[in-house]
Amino acid sequence: MTAGGAAAWRMWMSRQQREAAEQPRCAGKDAARWNTGHEGNLFAYAVCAACRLPQIGDCAPDESTRGVILAGVAYDDRGRALSRCPHCDFPMPISAEAPQGACKRRLCPSNQQVEGVYAEINEHRPAAYRQQITEWTLAGVPRAEICQRLNLPERGVRGAQTRWGLTGAKLAARQAAMQSRRVA
């Protein structure tokens, strides 16, 4: 490449980088995650925190900001800024009974008082039990029994097994490899 070609390429590349930096990080993402009360609100908060547009004032609320997360702040349907739950970090709706907001999420640890047992959110994620799930799956323990043993939802265990390659042909290959090790 010639010196002139390299300089032109660098200028084109820096222009592309500038244009990419000026784009909001939320562009092209699922817009429903920015609706207040959606389960994807934590993702929206994380994207807003990584974006530089709110810091330079290009992403600011206006009079039409209602029921969304904008610049890392959640707003209710009346346009009031909502505080975040100290337990699960989701926005807390304001009501007459709770002027500062109260978390109404079913999965919030503050709402998990079931039969006197307090359940932490992170305790019921399959990733915390990866070793046990892997061992039991390779040993041929049915998924329903794994869910029952660990008190986890079947959907979460199924998704984890898929991500970790513990289903279908990959599982069969792992089990065959284990059998060949045992025989040898």
Write the layout of secondary structure elements.
Blueprint: H1 3-22, H2 41-50, E1 69-70, E2 73-74, E3 113-114, E4 117-118, H3 130-138, H4 143-150, H5 154-163, H6 168-183
Antiparallel strand pairs: 1-2, 3-4
Description:
By secondary structure, this protein is mainly alpha-helical. It folds into two domains: 3-82, no CATH class; 125-183, no CATH class. The chain has helices at 3-22, 41-50, 130-138, 143-150, 154-163, 168-183, and strands at residues 69-70, 73-74, 113-114, 117-118. The strands form two sheets. It has a two-stranded antiparallel ribbon. A hairpin with a 2-residue loop joins strand 3 and strand 4 (117-118). The longest helix has 20 residues, at 3-22. It is flat and about 65 Å long. The N and C termini lie far apart (57 Å). The relative contact order is 0.06. Mean pLDDT is 76; it is low at 114-123.
Describe the structure using short key phrases:
single chain; 184 residues; mainly alpha; two-stranded antiparallel ribbon; 6 helices; 4 strands
Rg on CA atoms, Å: 24 Å
Q: For the residues shown, what is the average pLDDT?
A: 76
- Protein structure class: mainly alpha
N-to-C SSE string, H for helix and E for strand = HHEEEEHHHH
Q: How big a fraction of the residues is strand?
A: under 5%
| Molecular shape | flat
Q: Count the helices. How many?
A: 6
Q: How many discrete structural domains?
A: 2
Poorly predicted parts? 114-123
How many DSSP E strands?
4
Distance between the termini: 57 Å
Q: Fraction of residues in helices? A: 25-40%
How are the strands of the largest sheet arranged? 1-2
